[in-house]
Design goal:
By secondary structure, this protein is mainly alpha-helical. The chain contains six helices and two strands, in the order ααααααββ. The chain has a two-stranded antiparallel sheet with strand order 1-2. The longest helix is centred in the last third of the chain and has 39 residues.
């Protein structure tokens, strides 16, 4: 019986020793550095300046194109709508100054001070809509430029930003934090 245990122990011991021997596989680093185009951000910004959304298309961020046109389109709609309403109230006010009656029953019930206040409100809204159009247009250009610049940013396995638990020797408590590791 003891011989059987001894043989069994030797058999499992040798198999575990042989199991530890593995053939070493050396992997070659097959990460090839992509050529960085320093003009890529400028091209994307130029394309977006020519036609809004074209820079996002150039960066292959197709989902941003409807957002660009939606933002500029809604701002343009509000600009046109406020301009029409401003002209309506302004024409009513001018016709009252000339002594003629207006064309609308609703506007004829308003006083001159209410017409002036409405004109100022629609003029302010129109001007804000124009600022939004310009703002979204510039934001479109900046987004294309930044996205093109960040698309060439080097992100590989050797650079890591990881959470870490560090034992504090003074307080004997665990401290949580982040480490930035760069392997050569």
């Amino acid at each position: 019986m003891q011989n059987q245990f001894l043989l069994l122990f030797l058999f499992f011991g040798l198999t575990s020793v042989f199991a530890q021997e593995k053939t070493k596989i050396i992997l070659n680093d097959n990460l090839k550095a992509e050529a960085i185009d320093p003009l890529r951000p400028a091209k994307a910004a130029f394309y977006s300046a020519i036609l809004p959304g074209l820079g996002q298309f150039y960066n292959k961020k197709y989902w941003k194109v409807p957002l660009v046109y939606g933002a500029i389109g809604v701002s343009t709609y509000f600009y046109i709508d406020n301009q029409k309403k401003y002209n309506l109230y302004r024409d009513e006010y001018k016709s009252r100054l000339e002594g003629t009656s207006g064309h609308s029953a609703f506007l004829s019930g308003l006083s001159e001070s209410q017409l002036i206040a409405a004109q100022k409100q629609f003029q302010r809204n129109r001007d804000l809509s124009a600022l939004f159009i310009v703002g979204f247009y510039v934001l479109n250009i900046i987004d294309a430029n930044v996205d093109a610049a960040l698309s060439q940013f080097n992100v590989d396995e050797r650079l890591a930003f990881k959470p870490v638990v560090i034992k504090n020797d003074i307080t004997l408590k665990n401290d949580f934090g982040f480490t930035l590791c760069y392997n050569f």
